[in-house]
Structure formats: structure tokens, C-alpha cells
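Lecture 7 notes: from sequence to structure.

We start with a single chain of 338 residues. Read the sequence below before looking at the structure.
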Amino acid sequence: MSFDVWSADSPEWLAHWSPWPEREVYAHPGYVSLERDEHTRALCAAWRSDEGSVLYPFLLRDLRGEPFGVDAADVITPYGYGGAFFWGRDRDAVARAFWPAFDGWAAEQRVVSELVRLALFDDQLLPYPGERVERLVNVVRDLAPSPDELWMDCEHKVRKNVKKARRAGITIELDATGERLDDFLRLYEHTRARRDAPARYRFPREFFERLPDPYVYAHALHDGEVVSSELVLLSQLNAYSFLGGTDSEAFELRPNDLLKWELILWAKQAGKRRFVLGGGYGPDDGIFRYKRSFAPHGLVPFFTGSRVLEPELYDELTERAGGTGDDAFFPAYRERTR
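Now the structure, written as C-alpha cells:
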């Protein structure tokens, strides 16, 4: 058996990820490294034994700079879905060995706290030893049914809007190279501004240019112009609707309904098991209800996991930073820096 912590630049990480049957994109070193900077390292904890394997990707954030000024760090998973991914034959046995090994490493690094955006499917993960909190509900389209069954499982308004988009002459183009990145960014920024989306949804162009394969952009075109666009990240079994946008002047043509429907069919044909549409900004908001219309019975709770590993230092940092200690934000000492 072995426990290791590797950086995204280490070839061992990709070598450990590649034979994993599910090969989740959110655990790929190229994806995790998108969020590293001078204060943040892209790392993974890996476990290998006869009982199974683990790959836990995370960001280690340095707390030595302002406003904290302590020789310590904290852990958070990248944007999306994460946790300690497991494959093998004895999940519980591996959990009993992996978490103490990780905690020993974390103690050496003086890790104060850990925040994990947990993957949606528990069978992918080791049991989490900290607190799990349900945040929002996500929409997941099971792709096992036939195309006709998928069509009839959509809400009536989706079927109506898909037909309307086709009558209006909307066509769908798939792009696996990012050739139309300018169109995607134009529509994404337009949509983000219209919705007054939180700052965490602002991504630089470089983020998209550095995405690891495989992924696919889907574009809805009207009269040769892209009026709706979506980026889908691809794992071995799952397709994730990641980010997108639609020209508000084209709403009446319903391009995004057709785009999402064609993506669902494409993902099924590509052999994916699930198409993850995601959730909204808040409980039962308009974005969530729209996504739910494509899979009314595919509601899956989204959890975060959190742990305080150095309680005294956590309290000291929270008091120093003027945090409220409100459970709604974790870690509390970063409440004013978000």
C-alpha cells in the first residue's frame, strides 16, 4: 500500500488518473491546476493498495500572506464536484487507512480547515469524515432510456420549445476544439452580466484555453450567427453542462432548449451514463426550474463537506478576520475575503 501527495506538474498524478475506469474530469491535474496561483497549489492525495485506489484532488491555499499572516494553509476543492474518489473492492477498509494518512500529512502542513464540494454520486467517493451539509439540488438526466422515452420525460414546454426552435431554423454545431471560443465568451459574459452572477462565476479567457481534453462546445446558430452556446466537460461516464450563455434577443427562438436536447442525445450516443445539468444560484430559482424541465425525476442533492483540523488556530483566525462565525460560510475566517 502507498499514500502520496503529488502536484499537478508531477507525472504520477496523470499516471494514477489514467487507468481509473471513470476518469472524472474534475480530478484531472490539468483541470485542478486551472485555479492555482502564487498563493494556491494544485495537489492530489493518492492511495493504492490491494483493497482499492483513491484520488483526492484539492487546492492548498497559503495563509502566510495578507490578511492572515500565519504559517499555515487550508484546503478547498476546485469549482465543480470533488472529494476522495474511490475505485476498488473494499471502500470502508480503504477509508479507514486513507483518512488518517491524509490527516497526518495535513498536520505537517498545518492545514487549518478543509472544504469539499462533494461529487453527486456517493458510489464514487470514500465516506467523508467531516460534516456534510446539503446545499442545493442538482438535475441529472439518466441516459439509460431510449431517445423516445427521454423525449417524453421532458416537460411539455421543452418539447414545444424544441419544435419551435427547429421551425425558426436554429441549427446545432458541436465544437471539440474551442474554435468558436470568442462566440462562447461573448454569450457567457452577456448572460453573466444579465443575471448579475456572483464573482465566482467570472473566469478569464485563459481558463477556457487551458481546459484539458475531452470537452465539447455546443453552439446554436441562427442565420449563421451563434445565439446560444454551452461548454460540456466530459468524464468517462458523465457529461457535465459546465457554463453557457444565450443572446437575450434570441430568447423567443428558444435556441437553448434545442441545444440542451441535442446535447442529451449526443451524450447518450457517445456512451455516457448521465448528463449533469447542475443547479441554480439559489433553491428553486428560475435557472433550476429550467434545468429540471429536462429531467423532472432526476433530482440529486448536492453536498459540501467541511472539517476544522486546527480548532484553536481556526478560532484565532476567525476572530482576527472579523468573521461572524455563521455556519452559512466556511471557513468563517475567509468570509470577508470572498
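The radius of gyration is 21 Å. Keep this in mind for problem set 3.
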